[in-house]
Design brief:
The complex is a heterodimer of chains A (169) and B (265). Chain A is an alpha+beta fold. Chain A is 36% helix and 31% strand. Chain A has 2 domains: 72 residues, no CATH class; 90 residues, OB fold (Dihydrolipoamide Acetyltransferase, E2P). The radius of gyration of chain B is 27 Å and the shape is elongated. Classes of the chains: A alpha+beta (169), B mainly alpha (265).
């Protein structure tokens, strides 16, 4: 779904929640007259379960789209091995192969990206522009952060992840 | 300092409990026992700090301040009594014992000066003799170059390395160190400009191998040679600075994890 220039993505979990509550509401309205009399506000509430995540996704993706050019200008291309806890807060660019992908269904994907020198976790707090899969060669732009904000190993808070070439299917 | 803090946990918490027992049994006007629970709250925060500064974090000890606030500060249906204060104080003391037995020695800036880890520690010992003749200024420049590089400040690292290279070339007490500065300068500039690996780059020679942390890569492996050159150069700067500039050791310790990472990727 496109709103303006932003390609908004609805996560599977959002759709699942919407479907489950729709089933609940339909079932309840069949068996209960009380529920039927309140459908006038229950149905809009049901749609809010869909609208709110979409709105949040739009907001986050539009913000990421705004900051991406800044990162493109400032980020230094580094090897994974050179990223360390002293670089927390620094914008970086890495290129590597996606070894693992987690939590894509939540629109909060986490990738393990590896280059010749090592591997690093790349966290994204919104859905990416492209559908990135295991074995894709990608360019990652982001900021070095700690895994648990104040503790843990350095990871990349990803602003942009782009495929550099097709995966070897 | 640490032993004082460790002592403070039972002193504050059990002291508060003891005071609560004494004052509640002394007759006169009834006293709000929450005042004596302050000792438990202070003890909880100290315990959490002691847990925080250890290399392995104890989540139970770290969360005790939250419980202390829940039990003794936030309004609730149950009243704060002597039994609760006493049990909480004993629990804090037991958690302190558990922390000391199971979660290692506290790592603080005071004892951090001697906490180089292996294999970095052994490597620093290996180059101690070669570092003996290095001027203090050059050793300090090595520390600055390493620290700036670790922070991702590649332009500053290149500038520090360039200045050190010029000053060292005049005296030349340790030829591999001059090469190390030159390698770091070259690669820092490449990183600063996000430039690809060049065909020709500065490397250590076979005669430098005795002071290098990693073995030199075979001639046909260009990428490995490029990366190992930088690893060896950074580690040599670290070890030189560690041995020849004691005042820079706290700064170097901040970059120790990076040095260990390039030692053992």
């Amino acid at each position: 779904m496109k709103i303006g220039n932003i390609d908004v993505k609805v996560s599977y979990i959002t759709i699942a929640v919407f479907v489950i509550f729709t089933i609940f509401l339909l079932s309840a309205s069949v068996f209960s007259p009380d529920v039927r009399s309140n459908l006038i506000w229950l149905i809009p509430c049901l749609f809010l379960l869909l609208v709110i995540p979409v709105a949040l996704n739009y907001l986050s993706r539009s913000q990421y789209a705004e900051v991406t050019p800044l990162y493109e200008a400032e980020a230094k291309t580094v090897r994974v091995k050179l990223i360390n806890e002293n670089m927390v807060g620094k914008p970086v660019r890495i290129e590597g192969v996606v070894e693992r992908v987690h939590f894509q269904f939540l629109n909060r994907p986490q990738y393990l990206v590896a280059d010749r020198s090592g591997a690093i976790s790349v966290k994204m707090f919104t859905s990416p522009d492209e559908d990135v899969k295991v074995n894709d060669v990608v360019e990652v732009l982001g900021q070095v952060i700690r895994r648990y904000l104040v503790a843990g190993e350095p990871v990349i808070n990803c602003v942009s992840i782009r495929k550099k070439k097709k995966s070897n299917d | 300092m640490i032993w004082l803090l460790e002592l403070a946990v039972p002193v504050f918490s059990l002291g508060g409990a003891l005071a609560a027992i004494i004052f509640s049994g002394s007759g006169g006007d009834p006293v709000d026992l929450r005042y004596f629970a302050t000792g438990c709250i202070i003890g909880s925060f100290i315990l959490a700090y002691l847990a925080w500064i250890r290399p392995h974090k104890d989540i139970v000890a770290l969360t005790t301040p939250i419980y202390s606030v829940f039990f003794f500060v936030m309004p609730s249906d149950f009243s704060v009594g002597i039994i609760l204060i006493l049990l909480y104080a004993v629990s804090l003391t037991l958690l302190l014992v558990r922390l000391k037995l199971r979660f290692g020695v506290a790592h603080t800036p005071e004892n951090g000066g001697q906490s180089l880890k292996e294999p970095l520690k052994s490597y620093c010992e290996t180059v101690r003799q070669q570092a003996a003749g290095i001027p203090l200024e050059a050793a300090h420049a090595a520390a600055v170059t390493f620290a700036r590089f670790a922070q991702g400040e590649y332009r500053e690292a290149a500038q520090a390395a360039g200045a050190a290279t010029v000053s060292l070339t005049e005296t030349n007490p340790c030829p591999p160190l001059v090469t190390a500065f030159a390698i770091v300068r070259e690669q820092a500039l490449l990183l600063d400009e996000s430039t690809d690996q060049p065909e020709q780059f500065i490397e250590f020679s076979a005669s430098d191998a005795a002071v290098l942390a990693k073995p030199l890569s075979p001639a046909d492996q260009l990428n490995d040679r490029f990366e190992v050159s930088l690893d060896n150069a950074l580690l040599l700067l670290f070890a030189t600075a560690w041995n020849a500039s004691a005042k820079d050791q706290p700064v170097l310790l901040l970059g120790q994890s990076f040095a260990l990472k390039i030692f053992n990727p």
